[in-house]
Amino acid sequence: YTFHAFKGTGFKPSDTDKPFGRIDWILLRDTAGRFEVRGHQIPRDADEEAGLYPSDHYPVVADLSIS
Question: Which residue of 15, 17, 24, 58 has the lowest C-beta tally within 10 Å?
Fold first, then answer.
């Protein structure tokens, strides 16, 4: 998941009736076939002890190459 309600890794989804879906996406339209997805991640390395988060969502990062 990418949403954490400013609670960081302490956040636990509370709605057990529905799976906690992804709400942050990186979309890519590549009709020419020039892009290659080399990697992706959701960094969760904010300052947990101080509780400092720039957003209530973790960032979503993609490493792409273009040919």
Answer: 17
Residue 44 to residue 64: CA distance in whole angstroms: 20
Q: What is the pLDDT of residues 27-48, one digit of tens each?
A: 999 999 999 999 999 887 766 6
pTM of this structure: 0.64
Domain count, the chain: 1
DSSP 3-state assignment of 35? strand
Q: Determine the 3-state secondary structure of 63 from DSSP.
A: strand
Q: How far is residue 44's CA from residue 1's CA, in Å, rounded to a whole number?
A: 11
DSSP string, 49-63: TTTB-SSSB---EEE
44-66 residue pLDDT tens:
776 667 777 778 888 899 999 99
